[in-house]
């Protein structure tokens, strides 16, 4: 998997699928997850539908640039935000979602791609929204999947899901892989599968175990604030996808996103949690292909 330099301080690891002559689709991953979470079979299936698919590691994750010079203690950061000391919290975190959005746009530029369809999931949906808001001329269509608007009253987490998200994971390989089963707390109740979670955790651990980046990514999410006013003015064709089983980002996050973006399409999927189970890939891929066909020619 190659890396490309997207700014003086950041290089991004990426992988592509399909014909570069087909319409490009940039897949943006979520909090703490490597590009591997966009399963290669999913990427290939989308490429087989006539799309040039690009997945990549966000900064501070996988094989992309790590910001080791800016350590963030996640517990201390959360406590600081909870205490309302926002200036102190801002000083802890070296970047925001806008910087992460610029990484994705910089990757496209480095690949010689002027316009692309952008699909983001969870935090990746927030990054994708930010790409569309900052550079609408470069985003053919936006698909925001199981994400929200940055408004604290929407897309909330259940107590159980939040506890799992913030719980420290074991540092040893076996413990790390076993602990990932707790993420069934936010998975599809019908299709959630511990074996699938363990497989991804094993691949991710072996490729790049890097818990230090999680605090900085969390800070970027929390401190970037609400996008509500900007989303009201967005004119990029937008599809919002959300699973009705999602307990990590409640479906209100998707509903609110679609409510704010003019003419956005909202697709609520039964039996989908904060995951993309293989059984639902045909529906997800059909939705993305239809959206990019209908609204996305340069």
Summary tags:
about 300 residues; alpha/beta; Rossmann fold; 12 helices
CATH superfamily: Alpha/Beta hydrolase fold, catalytic domain
Give start-end ranges of low-pLDDT stretches.
none
| Text of the CATH class | Alpha Beta
Strand content: 15-25%
In what order do the strands lie side by side in the largest sheet?
Answer: 1-2-4-3-5-6-7-8
- Give me the strand/helix succession: EEEHEHHHEHEHHHHHEHEH
Structure description:
This protein has 298 residues and is of the alpha/beta class. The chain has a single domain, classed as Rossmann fold. The protein has helices spanning 40-47, 74-82, 86-92, 97-110, 123-134, 159-166, 173-179, 194-208, 212-223, 228-232, 252-260, 281-295; strands at residues 3-7, 10-17, 24-28, 52-56, 116-121, 139-145, 238-243, 265-269.
Short structural summary:
It is built from 12 helices and 8 strands. It is of the alpha/beta class and 298 residues long.
Helix-strand layout with pairing:
Blueprint lengths: L2 E5 L2 E8 L6 E5 L11 H8 L4 E5 L17 H9 L3 H7 L4 H14 L5 E6 L1 H12 L4 E7 L13 H8 L6 H7 L14 H15 L3 H12 L4 H5 L5 E6 L8 H9 L4 E5 L11 H15 L3
